[in-house]
Design brief:
It is a single chain. Helix content is 2%, strand content 53%. By secondary structure, the protein is mainly beta. It has one helix at 6-12; strands at residues 23-26, 29-36, 47-52, 58-65, 73-75, 81-86, 94-101, 104-112, 118-123, 128-133, 138-143, 155-158, 169-175, 180-185, 190-197, 202-212, 219-224, 231-235, 240-247, 250-258, 269-275, 281-287, 291-297, 304-311, 317-322, 328-333, 338-344, 351-358, 362-366. It is built from one helix and 29 strands.
Length: 367
């Protein structure tokens, strides 16, 4: 069981807002893709590319491809294909695949996401695709073929049929080489657990089918510790991070920690969460307090100790990413329309402001 979640960690490397491979235009410069929300008359809708210089400065290299509200992005294993959700204004969302041609993206095909409010997408090591629909309260399974073309939807799991509160599926993650899937549902306050039947192309509920968070917690995203021992879930509505462990198929809540300073009394909604590749530090974003909380991870127990709350120098940090070398942490501030560069001390985990760069409604950073 020691490495049970290791493949989940590896699959998340290819997903939006997580460190991964990098396109380098020089030895000192790295580039990343930016998913955005549309703003008619202000910027062109689509996916943008930015460069990150060695000193932390960012440069907007322009729009790569047109897309409607491409709010979450993910690469396949060899980075030859990019997939994105499209949060359309009316009706079910869409999923689109793009061929990666150097610094260019070429659309291959589109499929329905199976529900309203498509908000998260992930690709397994063997090219299965999971999409979470916030408004639809469901998750959809598709697959990429050898050319990067998306299949027709293979399965749709509606969390309304599972009971509980109104579902709002917010993210999905593959583990164990894609044989299992975890789906985080903000509405039911649960992390749903599925087995992926690859022969039938279906999701089968595990036993037990879910682990319950605190009532009203609003779980949104998760990250897995690289040692494979623990999973950490960030809860949007009660501003906490919850540690999970696993015995067999059962996921168990270990403990929870606040993402906020003790003296903060304002409104806050958490968003994103990531762990450093050495497993020593964990980070989460606070929308309202407008900060990144940094924790130290106890190597023996996985318990968290808050180190600091670093300002994001902007408003509504929906998404953030560690750079491939993990010496920078970049924050996508949705409402203030800027990306903030924070310098990261790899030894201490602490963050320091470097610069802030205007961006077209940034909501997803993908290296």
């Amino acid at each position: 069981m020691r490495y049970l979640f290791l493949s989940l960690f590896l699959s998340m490397i290819c997903a939006c807002s997580t460190p991964g491979g990098v396109t380098q235009s020089s030895a000192e410069e790295q580039t990343f893709l930016l998913g955005t929300y549309d703003e008619p008359g202000v910027h062109e809708p689509g996916i943008y590319r930015f460069s990150l210089a060695a000193d932390g400065r960012l440069t907007n290299l322009g729009r790569v491809v047109e897309a409607e509200n491409p709010s979450f992005l993910s690469y396949n294993k060899d980075r030859s294909v990019l997939v994105s959700v499209e949060q359309v204004s009316e009706g079910p969302g869409r999923v689109v695949s793009f061929a990666v041609r150097g610094d260019e993206l070429q659309a291959i095909n589109r499929q329905t996401s199976g529900g309203n409010g498509a908000c998260h997408i992930n690709v397994s090591q063997d090219d299965y695709v999971m999409v979470a629909n916030y408004g639809g309260g469901n998750v959809e399974l598709l697959k990429l073929d050898g050319t990067g073309r998306l299949s027709e939807p293979l399965d749709l799991q509606d969390h309304r049929q599972r009971g509980g509160e109104t579902p709002h599926a917010h993210s999905s993650y593959f583990l164990n080489d894609g044989s299992e899937v975890l789906c985080v549902d903000l509405g039911t306050d649960e992390v749903w657990h599925y087995r992926l039947d690859k022969q039938a192309g279906k999701l089968r509920p595990a036993t037990p089918p879910a682990v319950k968070m605190e009532d009203g917690a609003g779980p949104r995203h998760l990250t897995v510790h690289p040692g494979g021992k623990w999973i950490y879930v960030i809860n949007e509505l009660n501003s906490t991070v919850t540690q999970l462990s696993r015995t067999g198929d059962a996921l168990t809540v270990v403990d929870s920690w606040s993402t906020l300073p003790e003296d903060f009394t304002g409104e806050n909604f958490c968003a994103d969460i990531h762990v450093s590749s050495d497993g020593r530090f964990l980070y989460g974003s606070n929308r309202g307090h407008n900060s990144i909380v940094a924790y130290r991870v106890d190597a023996r127990t996985g318990a968290l100790t808050a180190l600091e709350h670093e300002s994001v120098a902007g408003d509504w940090p929906r998404n953030f990413a560690l750079s491939p070398r993990e010496d920078y942490l970049l924050v996508a501030n949705q409402r203030s329309k800027n990306i903030t560069t924070l310098k990261r001390n790899i030894k201490t985990g602490m963050l320091d402001f470097v610069t802030s760069t205007p961006a077209p409604i940034p909501v997803c950073i993908l290296f």
